[in-house]
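Following up on my earlier thread - several people asked me to post the actual chain instead of describing it. Fair enough. Here it is, all 97 residues.
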Amino acid sequence: MNNLINLAKHIPTPEATLTVAYTPIRLSMPGRQPLELRLTAPANGDKLPIVLLSHGYGPSNYIPSKDGYAPLVQFWAERGFVVIQPTHASSRVGGLP
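Reply from S.P.:
Thanks for posting it. Predicted structure:
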């Protein structure tokens, strides 16, 4: 096993908390179909840090950006981050032209 991965196993992380997800959130785009995104966050808390997960360069296993990377997004949200996943305006997945 990679030594860095082995060392990372011992980094302490906060206990997982209950999360909520809102999807799809639709944002108007003049002359285009609405931009869709998913927001996943801890169920409680305020002044939470935000992660904008914009992976780029095509879909994740042909899943729109807003729906891919679920295990990673869930992990971050369970540990106190608000995660925003947009489906890019240039996406050919999810019905965007």
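Strands lie at 19-27, 35-42, 50-52, 82-86. That should answer part of your original question.
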